[in-house]
Write a structure and sequence with these properties.
- There is one protein chain.
- This protein has one domain: Purple acid phosphatase-like, N-terminal (Immunoglobulin-like, Sandwich), CATH 2.60.40.380.
- Helices cover 0% and strands 46% of the residues.
- The strands form three sheets. The chain has a four-stranded antiparallel beta sheet with strand order 1-2-8-5, with no helix packed on it. Strands 4-3-9-10 form a four-stranded antiparallel beta sheet, with no helix packed on it. The chain has a two-stranded antiparallel sheet with strand order 6-7.
- The protein starts with a strand and ends in a 13-residue tail after the last strand.
- Keywords: Signal.
- This is Purple acid phosphatase N-terminal domain-containing protein.
């Protein structure tokens, strides 16, 4: 599973399944194990010579509250994962040591 920030208040959740019938759905919420919202999207796959990819899912979720932990699962029955959204005050400063 890969997540990426989309704009100031959305996340894109991406994952690949071998099951061509797996739904492209992400269920999410602010309480672990309780998914008050869901989002769906299109999926894709590709072929290159003799290779055929699995089903590639990209689902955009939101709008999301700043500085908040969200719990989510992919495909309707996946394991629970979590992420924390960035604070509303920008810019964010990083230090590399």
């Amino acid at each position: 599973v890969h997540i990426s920030l989309v704009g100031s208040d959305h996340m894109r959740v991406s994952w690949i399944t071998e099951d061509k019938h797996a739904p492209s759905v992400v269920e999410y919420g602010k309480i672990a194990g309780k998914y008050s919202r869901s989002a769906t999207a299109e999926d894709t796959s590709y072929r290159y010579f003799f290779y055929s990819s699995g089903k590639i899912h990209h689902v955009k979720i939101g709008p999301l509250d700043a500085d908040t932990t969200y719990y989510y699962r992919c495909g309707g029955d996946g394991s629970e994962l979590s992420f924390k959204t960035p604070p509303s005050v920008l810019p964010i400063t990083f230090a590399i040591v």
